Automatic annotation (TrEMBL):
This is HAD family hydrolase. Its EC number is 3.1.3.-. InterPro entries: Cof (IPR000150), HAD-like_sf (IPR036412), HAD-SF_hydro_IIB (IPR006379), HAD_sf (IPR023214). GO terms for molecular function: hydrolase activity. It is an enzyme of class 3 (hydrolase). Keywords: Hydrolase. It comes from the Bacteria.
């Protein structure tokens, strides 16, 4: 639990701050505004790329720093300034993709590049995707040979299969025993491969050092396996009631679900708004 005043609130978006219909409730927006009025910085920490955060920025009042791509990319939504961007190296992702393709027939890959704006998908990937998966039209994803997908470093390398779940794919990746990258999943139907050591906690630690804020001054919210490190790192890590086992285990407490305004409830209690 926190022993110092909160200076920054770090929150996941999908499944945590956002309701199931992808909206920010009026109650949640009011709580975020009250926190900002109290001098607390609000930072979205998400698997989304900046374009996906901007889709809901007005609803949530986001205009400052955001951590995208599971912490790989720190960007200021107002100025466009990039604080950092960590990439999976070309040789690393090529070795992973080639070995996994041999081990798991039908696996497909996509590379996220250029600050999250460019999405280079392998032939057959778009047929597995919907708009909500990546907040972009599958028709924009391309239809590339694997070599083209892997020919530049990736902010995030997406790994997907038509029938295997992310947890099943994760076991296959781990069985390869390869070094040089981190891998997680966010509740979406694919794995997310990041630069070695990168996680939401890694990105938030970098941002907090820049801002002069300590972990003990951070309140964090999450729901998915990719939130576990974040919830464990923060001075106060709160999982929503609908969270997956990894997030629940890492959190110091549990609030109501995303559809029951769980994030708002914690902020209201923090600020004595009830």
């Amino acid at each position: 639990m926190l022993t110092r005043p909160v200076r920054l609130i770090a929150t996941d978006l999908d499944g945590t701050l956002l309701r199931s219909d992808q909206t920010v409730s009026p109650r949640t927006r009011a709580a975020l505004d009250a926190a900002r009025a109290a001098g607390i910085q609000i930072v979205p920490v998400t698997a989304r790329q900046p374009r996906g955060v901007r889709r809901i920025a007005e609803m949530a009042g986001f205009s400052g720093w955001a951590l995208c791509g599971n912490g790989a990319h720190g960007i200021h939504l107002g100025t466009g300034e990039t604080l950092f961007a960590a990439h999976v190296e070309k040789d690393t992702q090529t070795r992973l993709a080639n070995l996994l393709s041999g081990r798991v027939p039908g696996v497909r890959f996509a590379s996220v590049r250029d600050g999250g704006e460019l999405f280079v998908a392998q032939h057959g990937y778009a047929a597995l995707a919907t708009f909500e998966d990546h907040k972009r039209d599958p028709a924009e994803m391309g239809n590339h040979e694997l070599e083209a997908v892997l020919d530049s470093p990736s902010l995030k390398l997406i790994v997907r299969h038509a029938s295997l779940t992310p947890r099943q794919l994760l076991a296959e990746v781990q069985a390869l025993g390869l070094p040089g990258f981190a891998v997680t999943h966010s509740g979406a139907p694919f794995l997310e491969v990041l630069a070695e050591g990168v996680s939401k906690a890694w990105g938030l630690a970098r941002l907090c050092r820049y801002l002069g804020i300590e972990a003990a001054e951070v309140l964090a919210f999450g729901d998915a396996p990719n939130d576990a490190e974040l919830l464990a790192w923060a001075g106060r890590g709160v999982a929503v009631a609908n969270a997956e086992p990894e997030a629940l285990a890492a959190a110091s407490e549990i609030t109501l679900s995303n559809d029951a305004h769980g994030v708002a409830r914690v902020i209201e209690n923090l600020l004595n708004l009830n």
